[in-house]
Amino acid sequence: MNKDDINSIKGLLSSPKTIVIIPHKNPDGDAIGSTLGLYHYLKSMNHTATVIAPNDYPDFLKWMPEESSILKYDSKKVESDALIRDADIFFTLDFNALNRIGQMETAVTEAHGIKIMIDHHQQPDNYATYMYSDVSMSSTCEMVYNFIDMLGDSDKIDANIATCLYVGIMTDTGSFRFPSTTSATHNIIGHLIDKGANNSEIHNNIYDTNSYQRLQLLGRALSNLKVIPEYRTAYITLSQEELNTFNFKKGDTEGVVNYALSLHGVIFAAIFIENHQEDIIKISLRSKGEFSVNEFSRAHFSGGGHTNAAGGKSDLNLQDTIDKFISILPQYIEDLKA
What we know:
Elements: H1 3-12, E1 18-22, H2 29-44, E2 48-53, E3 71-72, H3 77-86, E4 89-93, H4 105-110, E5 114-119, E6 130-133, H5 140-150, H6 159-172, H7 183-194, H8 199-207, H9 212-223, E7 226-228, E8 233-238, H10 240-245, H11 257-261, E9 268-275, E10 280-287, H12 293-300, E11 304-305, E12 309-314, H13 318-328, H14 333-337
Parallel strand pairs: 1-2, 1-4, 2-3, 4-5, 5-6, 8-9
Antiparallel strand pairs: 7-8, 9-10, 10-12, 11-12
Helix pairs in contact: 2-5, 2-6, 5-6, 6-7, 6-8
């Protein structure tokens, strides 16, 4: 985002506006953290701001400051459509293609408000008037921090903003261990702690809230783990029946794919989760090094994301999806053995 864009946005925000802030469907810690962090900042600047999420998200994100103000489009469609129609400005955070917001896509596409994208995923669509897109960033929350700083308002970051942004940076960096974590990331985290983010409490709220059934589901997932050593690949499956057995709730499979990636010698990992409600198999992909799961997912499973973390889906049944996945691996044998 260049100086002209920043100056234009400063002009837009120089007087009170009605603003809608949108994360992607099935929002994660970075999506909710970035939208709420920006929400608190805009409210402090006397704007009328509302976060509208396409649908619900995991319970372990529902302690965040003013999380209860978020509207869920799938259950508050009439109210949300009115806000979308009347908004002066839209901030779209942690996604870069409007098909990532599900049923909201038509309403947002047709709305007349100015659209501002802040996102760190690859290959953005060209739908926004102003785009802050940087794939080198650890998280959208880090970008929101930079955005506030570029506007000259880093002194306005308070404990609420700091807490929300800390959540997204922590979760999207795997607690600061992924390669996208830079010295700049750590400097920002230090500033957020100075501004009131309680790092120990945040970590406990996100990671230490397991239910008995969630741990039982993790046990089942690990018992389903398969390794394909000749391709340095491992994968996990969970059927709808298994999800039902352990009273699956949104977010219960968050991070499970990383157990497969942690195996010695494995550089490519996947989890396949059956979803009868949407009639798809949801896929999460992770990798180490230069093997791009973003390119793999875009080519074969209608998805995308980052080089080392991506998602996708399959319209085949669970077994046929696994068979397809395994059949594709020989095409990548040189990359996987590199």
